[in-house]
Amino acid sequence: RCADVLDGVFSSGAASAIKVGDLPTNLLLLSDSADASAKSSSSALEAAQRRCADVNDVRLSSILSLSQLLRPQCKTPDSPPPRSSEIVAHLQHYRVVLLRIATGQYLRAAVEFSADDQPQMWKRCLDAVLRLNTADFDVSSDAVGGSGDDEYNQYATIEAALPLTNLIRIAGSKGNDRRASELSLRLAQSYLAGIGGEGGKVSQNAADSELRKLSAAVKDVFWSVYHRKTVDQSNDMYAGLAQEAMSVVKLPLILSTADLSDEEKKRMQLLYCVMSLQSKLAVEQGRIDELADENWVAAKNRAEEKSGGVGRGGIVGLAKSKKQKAMEEDLSRDRFVTEAKRNVLLGDNGTMDIDSAALSLRDEVISGLSNSAVLLASALSDAAFELLERQVRRLAERARSIALLLHKPKKKAARKWSQCDSDTAWASVASFVDPLLIGVEEHGEAAPLLSRMSKRARQAICAAAVRLVSASWMIVAEEEPAMQLDLAASILSQGKEINKSEEKEAIKGRKERGDDAIGAADVSKESDGSLFIDAALSAAQCRNGLALSGDNTNVSKCVRNATVDALRWERKITSRSQKELLGEVGAPFLQLLLSWSGLHRSPWSFCTVTQARSIVRYAKESLELSSTAWGRAPTSLELIILRLAQADVECQLPGGYVPEGEALYRAALSSLEDTDSGISGNVVSVLESHCLCGLSKIALTGVESVTTSKSADDYARECLDALAILSEDNTAADVTLFHWRGSNAFNSSVAFHICAARQLVAESMLRGSKQEDAYRFLEDAVRDAPFSYDAAFALGSFRLRMLLSQVSPSDKDRKMAQTQLLKAAKLNVKKADPFALLGLWYEVQNDGKRALGCHSKALILDPTHPVAGRGVLRMKSYKDIEHLCIAATSVTSPVNGWAWRAVGRGKAMGKGDDESAAICFQQALRCRDIQAHTNENLGFFFRDPTVRDRDGGGLGECGETWSDLAGCYRRLGKYSAALRAYTSADEVSSGGVPPDVLCAWAHVELELGLYDEAVAKFEAVIGGSESASLAVASYGHGTAMLALSRLHANEGKFGSALEHLQRGIKSVKSLVEAKGQPASLSSSACALKLLGDLYTFGSSLPASLFGEDEDCANDNLDCCHHDDNTVSKLSFASKGGEAYTKAWQTHNEREAKCDVSSDSSLLSAAALFDVGTSLLCQARILASSLGEGTGGGTKSSMLDMPSKCPGIRGRID
Fold it and tell me: Are 799 and 772 in contact (CB under 8 A)?
């Protein structure tokens, strides 16, 4: 009755706001019939407790103590009162103890006072056990009235076994076989619940220590004394009893009753399947533990004998290393358990029964997916899905065991297994999972159905999808069985999103409650479980991407995603256990295949050479782990493809090491020539063609490390000969090309390599000045395949190339180029290349409107097209097409460098945002159309078609981009970075650095104090042809000479200082006195200012250096008190004052011509200051020559100068 009162408190909803003061101090006060005098009398309680102690009545003493613990006790007197949640938890534990007492009393009554053929008391005992288990489940799950009310959870306790056994006995004795079967099914569930735990364990998480102690005492005196028969049973015994109980269950008899509804029958069928499989798995686990313990004990005994036996030395030695041996024994047992599990899984004893029971459960689950009440949110469904996941894991472990045995052929157990057996075992995993995933799809869309499932069921479905992906990777047979990989990818994707959403909601709830739980961490933190799902999802998506045909527009997106995932995981995944998870599904290698895609398109489209190397290294390591951890050894075909991918990294990407790539191509060719490789002949031909195309490209560059008699043309023609046979073979369309299992994958790869080989042959002929031969070759290709887009476009691009190379092309040549490109455009209207080249053709014809239309059409089809993008930039201002450039940069592409460069220039020149511009230029330099345009198929057409000098010198587009980047760094004050950028621009220039770039480079070196290097660059510009940069170079040269003169003067090298001054004066004089220079008044004033600085600095040099130089002439000064050198120095310095005066006059002229206010007045004042400084320097020269300031007697004073030196009267005045 007291438990009923507590149930009423919980069900009324008042528990959420309950306080300690709301509870009576005594359990007896909960009863309305309690005696009022007893309520307030503590003496009666004390007397009763003393009497219990005298007569040793533990049962009544426990009840009396329990009555005083209704309120939760504070830990210390100063502790705050318990919160409502703590009070509720205390009352839940209190209710469990009360129900334990009631259950014990019913058990006692049934055992001691009930007749053998009367079920009433056993029924009450069973009901009490079920209610107790429900309450205990609520405590352990921290959810009042939650899923503990589920009928499945109620029977999941070993304590129900005793009343169930007696009820079965009574039902059998009365001939009620249906009731006996139903109860036997529940009995099996009860026995199985006792495996691995303590039957009837009461939760010990109560906040009150007194209540914890009392609950243990209550269990001993009210329950255990009458329940000794089952409490000491072992796991093996429970498993045997459960299987014995299942042997007498007659499911048709249970379902024959008319009292059961359809839903109840479905539930009963599912329960039967769950119990049948669970009991068989429990027996199998018992065999595994028994075998493991037997072998483990034997191994320990052998180890003790080897270490000294039972003699005194052996015992002493054992005692000395007891802790170490205990650790070793614990570790070694895991090894024996693994071996025992492998032996049991690979044996025939019982495995077929388990598999058939698992199939029955799977089919029952599939049929029940449509019934939400049965499967979508119940404890029974969770148990069913958990068993299915366990069976899938069991099948995978069996297949793994076979594969690992094959990986170690020297073992005796491996002799009876073959690779076919391993593939069959993994195929059984797929065949078990496939119908389950199809059932999920057929009974509703994946996302809604998964969202309605419990978290445990959803985890099982996702685990099954993961194992399906694993099976598809582990099967190495060429004829792989059909699998629902697309469906697996969809389920994994939806499950991932649902889990993420639930995790966010949980974190939000914890934050609102103020919990400081570790679970409130960031959702982005990857656990092994989520990583496994991510890896399987990526692997399935890669396989679906590989299944697409080579010309499918969706492939590019798949390639980008695979590249991003591979680079992200290569950086983040470091532990071996996580790498083994990736190796189980083959994600790294599949990501490599898709990132590379070299058999159907240009290899490594979205990678730099460093990134591609990382992906290759990551895939190699994954293959090794897949072999050692899962027994999935790489096939010869996979190793060859890995070599080809690595060879393309070194030979096809800028910055690769070509000799290494060449060696890999030749090694792959050697492996393909091996007749024992087991690879299909048609596939061998395709792979050989890829190697030959790569060697042909290497031969065109002239960097072959192996001397052969074959040329680039020979390699390409050999490739064409092999592919011609395949293109004529009608059966080749049915060939499976490794993981590229699309219907058109093989033919697409053949067409790609034929096109590449033809272009290589044509390029080889062009370099050999065999334009006519190249033309005929491409025409023959079009004639052989008149409806082939690749052949038509190759001929059209060749004709346009010849047209652009001719000085005066004929009208016929123009028309033929246009016609062929139009034909290519009609053959495939989704290709942007023909429209881009047609735009070039119209540019040559000066038809700007049509040219712009063709380029725009190409950009619609491909927003990053390098030819069309450059064409639009030539024809329109950046402001008009800024949106097109920004759209191109928003797409991940290896050839959108033109757009990044245009955006960078717009930000630098238009908005003055050098920080953002530098980022754009850096991104442009990572793109292939900027970094290595010669390696692109259309790289020839990147230049302006109206410029006939196609091979003209200069920086080129890459060098200009480096120069633009250096300019940004210079304006930002990052001179060291600017210097490195200018150096890179010089390294990539094809015909020397332009004068304006040299001047900018030299000015950066001036800022860094690299005066000699700056002088060399300024002199290179001055010594070259006339250019607009000559004035800048002359001025910069004078500045550098002044800086060097000051440097040498400080070092005491006065002669060198004067020499540098004279060289600087010469450069600046040529700038000031030059005629026809388009210099403004302000620039002329600057030059005059610099000239004055050069002359004036001469005043700090010794007079002995100044001789009869034209700049040191004495101007016929009449002075008998000064030597000629002093007079010459004075004359040299006075020319600085003259230059300053001219600068002042120039500023005045500029101020007079300006209609608006300017800073000329300030500049004029500065110029007058410089004039005064020059006069002061001249006065110091005269004073120094007369001994002024030396401390000795002087020949004359400054006051006597005008009379003694009439020639310098004007300077003094």
Answer: no
